[in-house]
């Protein structure tokens, strides 16, 4: 996510955690943020943007929700 101006190390940690779970709980989010040196809000925003990017790549609607026929 180039719009957030993150280092390669931060992106690596975020992407590794994204592979583990696309929607981290509060405790996980706090730990990921601390490891990256980001605020919880910045980390939450990254996951939100990354989820929208993933959904678009999968041909799904960008918003979180159910997929209907």
Automatic annotation (TrEMBL):
Stored InterPro entries: HD, Homeodomain-like_sf, HOPX
DNA-binding residue intervals: 3-58
Keyword match Electron transport: no
Cited PROSITE patterns: HOMEOBOX_2
Predominant subcellular localization, coarse grouping: nucleus
Keyword entries, A-Z: Developmental protein, DNA-binding, Homeobox, Nucleus, Repressor, Transcription, Transcription regulation
Pfam families recorded: Homeodomain
Domain Homeobox intervals: 1-57
Job description of the protein: Sequence-specific transcription factor which is part of a developmental regulatory system that provides cells with specific positional identities on the anterior-posterior axis.
UniProt-listed GO biological process terms: cell differentiation; regulation of transcription by RNA polymerase II
The protein's name: Homeodomain-only protein
Location relative to the cell: Nucleus
Source lineage: Eukaryota, Metazoa, Chordata, Craniata, Vertebrata
Single GO term (MF): DNA binding
GO cellular component terms attached to this protein's record: nucleus
Species: Xyrichtys novacula
Superkingdom of the source species: Eukaryota
């Amino acid at each position: 996510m180039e719009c957030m101006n993150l280092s390669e190390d931060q992106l690596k940690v975020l992407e590794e955690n994204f592979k583990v779970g696309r929607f981290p709980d509060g405790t996980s989010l706090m730990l990921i943020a601390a490891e990256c040196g980001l605020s919880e809000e910045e980390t939450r925003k990254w996951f939100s943007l990354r989820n929208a990017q993933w959904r678009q790549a999968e041909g799904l609607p960008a918003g979180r929700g159910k997929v209907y026929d």
